[in-house]
Amino acid sequence: MALKFKKVQNSLKAIERVDTVMRSQNIFLCPIYIILSVASFNSSSMAQETVDTPAAENSVKVDAGLTLSEEFTDNVFQTANDKKSDFVTVFAPWIELSLLSRDYELSFGADAEIGRYATYSSENYEDYGLYADGRFRLGDSLFAFGGLDYAREHEERSSPDSVNGLEPTKYHETSGYFGIGGQLNGNSFRLGVNARDLDFDDTPAAGGTTINSSDRDRQELEFGGRLGVAQITNGEVFVQGIFDQVEYDDKTDSQGYQRSSKGGQAALGYKGQWGDLAGELSFGVLTQNFDDPRFDTVTVPDFDVDLTWRPSRTTQISFVIERSLEETTITGASSYVSTSAGSRLRYRVAQNLSLAGYLFLTENDFKGIDRTDIYAEAGLGLRYYLDPRFYLDADYAFQQRLSDIAGEDFDEHRFFLTFGYDLEPNFETRPEDRARITSSEFYAGTQFGYGVLQSKVDGPRGAGGNLTADFGDQGPVAGLLGGYRTTVNGLVLGVEADIEFGDMEWVHDADRDFSVKTGNTYGVSGIVGLKTVASNFLYGRFGVFASEFESKYQRGGNSTSIDDRVIGFSFGLGTEVPLGRGLSGRIEYQIRSFSDYDIGAPLGANDDNFANLQSAVRFGVIYTFGAQETPAPYVAPTDFSGFYAAATLGHSTLQSDNSGPRPTSAAPSFFLNATRSGQGFSGGALAGYGWQYGAVYLGAEAELEVSSAGWNVERSPTGRIYSAEKVGSVAGLLRVGYIVNDSVLIYGRTGLVRAKFETDYSYSGTTINQSDKLDGALIGLGVEYSVGPRTHLRMEYNYTDYDDYEVDYGTGVDIFDSKESRFQVALAYKF
Predict the structure, then answer these.
(1) Which of 526, 662, 725, 738, by CA, is between 20 and 30 Å from 602?
(2) pLDDT of residue 407
(3) What confidence category does residue 29 fall into, taking pLDDT thresholds of 50, 70 and 90?
(4) 8 Å CB contact between 72 and 165
(5) pTM of the model
């Protein structure tokens, strides 16, 4: 079900064609996890509050285009272990015919996307779609709208409902919508109906079998309306409601569940404009009742925020928060509540050069089973126009899923190089507005920080059993770097090489002894960023790394050792601030994932698969060669004193030293010592007050955080299954800092944290679900500077050491001693 009417999700594609609105500004839409609503209550077609049409006379317009992309992915099947990489060639043509007059607008279009994998041809696909939509003037205050769509698509491997067949699942989607809208007593209104039919093809499986997908076939019907109830300053207050019905072709599916349902949504909202910020927000409730009596009715708060900020003629930043209830056929689950939040940046560097970036987080909370998945998607893209019709795109996309189900995590890095053509010119050539290099420089520096090694181990155990478990270690890192960067009309592009020295090692000491130890890491990265008016540099990075891993495995009288350099890819975010005399300071965070490998004792006999990941926060000092102290534009000193509040977003690693009895017939008193480690995301809010004494800063703040950082161990079908997750915390903190160049606050913070941990433990017929509130001591280091009249950006690293705790499962007691590394970005408002 899709309670926001129709959702079309486009994730990790090379480049989306420019929409009409953005084309006029020469800004392209980067590949992104973004909702493109055709018949949505938030769509452009239904959101019009008047019935005026742009064309006074009849006109016909034909537009078309195509893209040819070469892509590289390091994780074709989007798995935690046994990852496969490949190159993909993608051809995507499209065409659109528009008929415009004073009384109507009609559009007819077709598009296709054909993908060919160099090695894994089973993943080849041919997607295509046809659509027609229109808008008709019925009077001075009334219009009608409608449309039809047909698409043949394939299901992404990252889908929670992916059946893991020998090829992706194909499906057909047919939909139509119609409605009326206009003005009623000065307020807007819209009424609409949307119908959708989904038909899934059967999927080939191993052993010559076929996976029957017919019990996923369904029809969805939605009816809803929206009415403006009050005109207020700069906007309108509205109410809206939607009724939906989902009817499956098979009344009872192959698992014995009746998945048909009925539900609805009601919300109160506001749409308007506040200076450079425009958009709408709504809050309400959504509910769904299922035919199967084993499924509880789902009722949750509903919210939708869609804001666009245009700080300048060339810059657009969008903020999106939304919630919906989605269908699933996972055993035992009725549905899942999907909550997404993210931001998109579109920046026109010059007439022929554009930058796009995005960052989205999505939580899928499954109803009826104990499972929550967190998806993160981020990316950077550049478009360079060879002329008004031909362009080149260079893009990078990162995707990560973290789940509280063992083995469901994955990381994927994807690189794109795309050639594109649009029949309609994207701009009129103006030589004075072309991209020009304004400066170039070499630089070198040193860095230090704190790194985390995480290893996902998957392998056979016992007679037909399997182990999936998370291990890891933390420790200091240090290194050297050097690079070259150039500035093009305010956009900074660079390439950087670095070497990092680290010494992290985790050890599993039980009936099998195995371990992983890191060595030196060499890397090359691309850097893309923008500078503020105070010359503070905010950037993203993506690159390739080679890290040394020494892995050991011992079982019985057999032992194996592998010492090799493994290739991996990284995604990072950072900021650099000037210190004067050619020096600048830097803080950045990186997430790296590496190729996996097999190891066992003896090697080649029922090996385990090791998949290593790293995260690292790094603080650096950079020297720019030949830097000249040119007078910078005057920027008023930043006042850091007074009250402030901030929203935070972070990425964490939770490490737990795990010890406990593991008796066997051969060693009845054996004791386990292992280090568990897993990743997660966090978000929250903080508020505080600061005092400024010249260049010295002193402040106090309180922070509230929710988190998904945790790890999993699962030995199936018999054995221990247990996990730990930090779900939230409150903290009281002191902040002490020094202000550089009257505009940058470099600070440390320390204080006490009270955190809630959830631990699930199942063994020998006993299941424990335990909650513990643990105290911890936090230390952190960060940087803050102004990005608006009252808006500040913070980047910081925090390390917290928590008290240990015990889990008594009846036949033994396990002890857990946890530590957390967290990097977070905060956007603060100063009152």
Answers:
(1) 662
(2) 86
(3) very low
(4) no
(5) 0.89
Residue 432 has pLDDT above 90, yes or no: no
For residue 204, say if its preceding peptide bond is cis, omega within 30 degrees of 0: no
The DSSP call for residue 407 is T
pLDDT, residue 625, reads: 92
Reported as a single tens digit per residue, the pLDDT across 473-508 is 999 999 999 999 999 988 999 999 999 999 899 999
**Residue 45 gets which letter from DSSP?**
H
- The distance from CA 726 to its chain's CA centroid, rounded to whole angstroms, is 20
Give percent of the chain with pLDDT exceeding 70: 92
Q: Is 8 left (phi over 0), alpha (psi -120 to 50) or beta?
A: beta
CA atoms within 13 A on the CB side of 681: 20
Q: For residue 822, is pLDDT > 60?
A: yes
**Cα separation, 315 vs 445, whole angstroms:** 32
Residues 280-301 have pLDDT tens digits of 999 999 999 999 999 999 999 9
Cα–Cα distance measured from residue 449 to residue 447, given in angstroms and rounded to the nearest whole number: 7
Distance of CA 105 to the CA centre of its chain: 36
Report which of 669, 651, 647, 650 is spatially closest to residue 660, judged by C-alpha positions: 669
C-alpha distances (whole Å) from 155 to each of 203, 288, 416, 487 are: 11, 25, 20, 41
Two tokens, residue 651: 């990425």
Nearest Cα residue to 211 out of 167, 157, 248:
167
The DSSP bridge partners found for residue 143 are 137, 181
H-type helices in 87-142, by residue range? none
For residue 403, what are the β-bridge partners?
373
User: pLDDT for 168-192, tens place per residue?
Assistant: 999 999 999 999 999 988 889 999 9
Residue with more model confidence, 490 or 236: 236
Amino acid letter, 497 = A
pLDDT at 665 over 80: no
Say how far residue 323 (Cα) sits from the centre of its chain: 15
H helix count then E strand count, the chain:
2, 42
pLDDT recorded at residue 433: 83
Please report which helix (H) or strand (E) contains residue 23, including its range: helix 20-23
Query: DSSP string covering 678-704, please?
Result: EEEEEEEEEEEEEEEETTEEEEEEEEE
At residue 451's C-alpha, the angle toward residues 747 and 660, to 5°, is 115
Gyration radius from the chain CA atoms = 28
Q: What is the number of residues in the chain? A: 831
User: Which pLDDT band, with edges at 50, 70 and 90, does 627 fall under?
Assistant: low
Secondary structure in 3-state letters for 316-352: EEEEEEEEEEECCCCCCCCEEEEEEEEEEEEEEEECC
- Residue 516 pLDDT > 70: yes
Question: Residue 632: pLDDT band by 50, 70, 90 thresholds?
Answer: low
Q: Tell whether the torsion through CA atoms of 93, 99, 100 and 104 is positive or negative.
A: negative
Which residue in the block uniquely carries the two structure tokens 């008709």? 136
Residue with tokens 């239904």: 46
Residue 30 near residue 22 (C-beta atoms within 8 A):
no
Measuring CA to CA, which residue among 7, 42, 6 is closest to residue 318? Answer: 42
DSSP 83: -
Long-range contacts of 765-772 (CB under 8 A, 24+ apart): 766/809, 766/810, 766/811, 768/807, 768/808, 768/809, 770/807, 772/805
- Cα(686)–Cα(689) distance, rounded to whole angstroms? 11
